[in-house]
Amino acid sequence: MKTLIVFYSNTGNTSKLAKIIGDKLDGETLEIKDQRNRNGLIGFLRAGFDAVTSNVTIIENFNLELSEYDLVIIGTPIWAGRLTPAIRTFLIGNSEVLPEVAFFTTHAGGGSSKALLQLEELAGKEPLACLSIEKSKLKEDSSDSEQEIDKYVKTLQNKFE
Ligand SMILES: Cc1cc2nc3c(=O)[nH]c(=O)nc-3n(C[C@H](O)[C@H](O)[C@H](O)COP(=O)(O)O)c2cc1C
């Protein structure tokens, strides 16, 4: 199956998970870049505000044909219980050309249920599978998330057999 992993990551956790999933599925990755500064106290507060108020942002252009893939896997960090503005903006602009989708999130322990619903609503289709990993489980010395990630990847592979 031809797979693309689309993700946004500010501090590297979601990027790390995207790479793990990409390697396991032999997929390509596309990092969505938010043009707004999300660093420092002001950036953090603004990030939370934009997530809560469902604001869009400006993302860098990319030149990939999403419809050429069998599966697009979309990953986002959780901000204030929501998905990130960058992934919101990506989905608003591209939902109509998405093939089958799957979602994943990283968070700090607060869970992802609301954000997963937002992802489904914005993508306009049910995901084949969802994965939420707490960031501490992605540390170098942790193998806590291995089974969960493998199960997610297997579920996706089985759908295309
Ligand atoms: C503005 C902001 C809000 C956040 N809100 C939550 C939250 O509501 N629940 C949670 O579990 N983690 C929250 N986090 C933590 C991130 O979801 C977590 O660190 C994630 O792994 C970051 O991904 P990244 O390293 O790819 O940017 C928040 C982080 C930021 C910057």
Question: Your description of this structure?
Answer:
- Helix 1 links the parallel strand 1 and strand 2.
- The chain has 5 helices and 5 strands; from the N terminus they run βαβαβαβαβα.
- The chain is α/β, with parallel strands linked by helices and 161 residues long.
- A 5-stranded parallel β-sheet has the order 2-1-3-4-5, with helices on both faces.
- The chain is 38% helix and 18% strand.
- The protein has one domain: Rossmann fold, CATH 3.40.50.360.
- The longest helix has 14 residues.
- The chain binds flavin mononucleotide.
- Flavin mononucleotide binds next to helix 1, helix 2 and strand 4.
- The site of flavin mononucleotide (FMN) has 21 residues, from helix 1, helix 2 and strand 4.
CATH architecture: 3-Layer(aba) Sandwich
Broad CATH class: Alpha Beta
Number of domains: 1
**Helix run count:** 5
CATH superfamily: Flavodoxin domain
If strands are numbered along the chain, what order do they take across the biggest sheet? 2-1-3-4-5
Q: Name the hetero compounds present.
A: flavin mononucleotide
Number of separate strands: 5
Q: Assign the structural class, choosing from mainly alpha, mainly beta, alpha/beta, alpha+beta, or little secondary structure.
A: alpha/beta
SSE ordering: EHEHEHEHEH
Distance between the termini: 9 Å
Radius of gyration: 15 Å
Largest sheet: 5 strands, parallel
Average predicted local confidence, pLDDT: 96
Q: Could you name the ranges where pLDDT drops below 50 across 5 or more consecutive residues?
A: none
Strand content: 15-25%
- Helicity level: 25-40%
The CATH topology, please? Answer: Rossmann fold
- Global morphology: globular
